[in-house]
Amino acid sequence: MSRAGLSAYAASGETVRALQERIAELERERAHRVEVGNEEVGSKEAALFLQVIVRLL
Questions:
Q1: Closest CA to 55 of 40, 34, 37
Q2: DSSP per residue, 13-44
Q3: 2 three-class SS
Q4: Among 26, 29, 31, 44, which lies 20 to 30 A Cα-Cα from 20?
Q5: Are 33 and 40 in contact (CB under 8 A)?
Q6: pLDDT, tens digit (0-9, with 9 covering 90-100), for 19-49
Q7: Where would one find coiled-coil regions in this protein (predicted)?
Q8: Is 0.70 topped by the overall pTM?
Q9: Which region holds residue 13: left if phi is over 0, alpha if psi is between -120 and 50, else beta?
């Protein structure tokens, strides 16, 4: 394989690793999100707050 080919291969490997890291990060963020009705909020505390507000209405 040529030097350019090796460089492209190495760069694609780095890109794949970067994408895998980003996917893992997004999955961790998603695991901490909670759905309330049709709404998605960032934490369980926010979800509980919204549930209380909805019940008061």
A1: 37
A2: HHHHHHHHHHHHHHHHHHHT-EEETTEEESSH
A3: coil
A4: 44
A5: yes
A6: 788 888 878 877 766 666 666 666 677 777 7
A7: 9-36
A8: no
A9: alpha
